[in-house]
Amino acid sequence: MNQHKKLSSRLVHLGDRTGESVSRSKTIPITMTSVFAFDDVESLDRVYRGEAQGYIYTRNGNPVHDALGEIMSGIEEGEGALAWASGMGAIALSILAQVQAGDHILAAHVLYGGSFQFIGNELARFGVGVTFVDVVNEDLSPYFQANTRIVYVETISNPIMEVVDLEALAKLTHAHGAKLIVDNSFATPVICRPLLLGADTVVYSATKYIGGHSDVTAGIVVADKETLAKIYAFGLLLGPTLSPFDAWLLIRSLRTLDLRIRQHARNALSLAQYFHTHPAVQTVYYPGLPSSPTHKVAQRLFSDNLFGGMLSIDLVGGEAQAYALLRHLDSIQFAPSLAGVSTTTSYPAKTSHRALSDEELAKAHISKGLIRISAGLEDVDDLIREFDSTLAKIC
Ligand SMILES: *Cc1c(COP(=O)(O)O)cnc(C)c1O
Predict the structure, then answer these.
(1) Beta-carbon-side half-sphere exposure of residue 162 (alpha carbons within 13 Å)
(2) 113: pLDDT confidence band, cut at 50, 70 and 90?
(3) 235-257: per-residue pLDDT in tens?
(4) N or C: which end of the chain has fewer CB within 10 A?
(5) pLDDT for position 4
(6) How far apart are CA 234 and CA 366, in angstroms?
(7) Going from the N-terminus, what domains does the chain have, and what CATH number goes with each?
(8) How far away, in angstroms, is 16 Cα from ligand 1 center?
(9) 139 has catalytic annotation
(10) Partners of 107 in the beta sheet?
């Protein structure tokens, strides 16, 4: 850089070309830029016209987003994937990009709180009708209408961990000319790959297991090219752009996803078995337990006998006992999210599902004694010891 330039000029240009080299970075570099520079107008024009590979502006795309998309679509066996600034961003875009006024959606009656509110409260303003149904226990056939475009479900429902038969649901959905969107956040592609079971679009809160370290808020959509083009075009205008830095963190996290999920699932199963015989617990919700009503479906759809890292327990002592347990647990933190490296607890009635009325809570089996547990990566004996001594103290 020319020494004769003033400090202000040097401040904005120094380092521009650092790193040009005959070798390249072994890992994907963080392209922390909002815009890309071109040598001339012709090259910019070629990129706009799709004749040259290039980037223009990070809201339109960034190399780290593309690398993340390639990994996600590669493991899901989709035609592509798009990353967004949150799970809700990915979910809202995936739905809105595929409906118009006059359409109808069928949705599971037990959903992540934000998804339930978006589908239940916001879609009506866009002229989209909604019917909530018990997708696990009811025959959905009578609920389809001529204008039903989308069926929206979660692989493992939150917080009572019921597993939907995605294979059968995809067949039924397609027979009615609709598309199946699956929120696979709780299962992850290590345990279940909904596209291979017939689903059309898979959405993730990557804030959860994909990120896995409680330090990123992000969402991902995996689908076919035509659907992704609609979601991309709409997302470009709504603007929930993921920071390239956060996209990079997700790539880093994905490298260990398989290892992490296996340990989360092993610990969750051991905890579920422990709680199953504990007198203070009236019900354990975990699809890995043979007593779970959807255990057989989970065995058929899930890989390697893995049932996920999430379980819920319903305490005999109700609300007072639930509050006491959450207050007295020591290293196991009460944190209203999930899927981090350490075990955390949540209280669905006052966190993820606090917008539900008492009647809706009862329908979703969310009692006042219900505690949701996100099994972390600790040694499970330590976890059981902590739950055991705390339950002994409060019972
Ligand atoms: C957290 C969560 C969401 C929302 O994702 P955000 O990243 O918080 O926007 C959606 N679905 C499920 C199942 C979730 O757990």
Answers:
(1) 17
(2) confident
(3) 999 999 999 999 999 999 999 99
(4) N
(5) 86
(6) 35
(7) 58-254 (3.40.640.10), 257-394 (3.90.1150.10)
(8) 38
(9) no
(10) 132, 152
